[in-house]
Amino acid sequence: MEESISGFKVRGDWGDVVEHGERISLALREVGVDEDAYYEFDEWRPKTHERIDEDVSEKTAAQASVDEGEGERAGQSPGDDLQTAGEKLTESYEQVEENDTESARESWGESIEHVARAADSASRKALRRVEDAVYRNVMTQMAPYYFDNELVSANVQEVARAEDGETFVFEVNVNDDELKAEVSGVLDEYESEIDRWHVETEKRTDDVAAAEGVEPPVEEGGPDSTTT
Predict the structure, then answer these.
(1) Is 130 helix (H, G, I), strand (E, B) or coil?
(2) What's the confidence (pLDDT) of residue 127?
(3) Strand order across the beta sheet in which 145-148 lies
(4) How many CB atoms lie within 10 A of CB 165?
(5) Using one digit for the tens of pLDDT, what is the confidence trace for 155-199?
(6) Of 202, 203, 141, 149, nearest to 174 (Cα)?
(7) Where are the domains of the chain?
(8) pTM of the full predicted structure?
(9) 174, 200, 203, 220: which has the fewest C-beta neighbours closer than 10 Å?
């Protein structure tokens, strides 16, 4: 592993990439990080059973996608908001006829808000379709697969392909300098104290459980189970 101002970087085969992600994930846990941003990275980091051009590509496209807007978070489609906008507009006309100008003004304002929300939802959906197509078909041919949130910034890319396998570069930077120094210390301990790192593998117990007629055990995933 190389450490620089831009992060913790490893160059090697897929196993090296997976191990690097596991070490950093476990180090973050050991220094007390336990928040949504951590679990987002832990989900995105490459796993031993995944392929970079399929699984990591899909997760990167999803992570990079435009966030949901207010209407989408409320479970309303653009059509739903436009229908509500029309209803509010009708209410405002009726209230004007009844000389209830204050209520008419409120209904008119609500109608405008729903129109704006419908436009926002439609725009976000259109952007996601374009983003996904461009990312999958263009960007992955030019740039590394990346992840970015308030906790870490990471990227992985294939840099060589030969008969004996592929070579990858995986770099992860912890965005907070103090936290990064703590993680660096833990990673140094791993280097000096752990002789062999047991890479976590996907547990496929459903088929065996079905054959034996028993319930599958609860999986104990996560970086805590990768060392001995």
Answers:
(1) helix
(2) 59
(3) 2-4, 7-12, 165-174, 152-162, 145-148
(4) 12
(5) 898 888 887 788 999 999 999 999 999 999 999 998 877 656 655
(6) 149
(7) 2-66+124-212
(8) 0.59
(9) 220
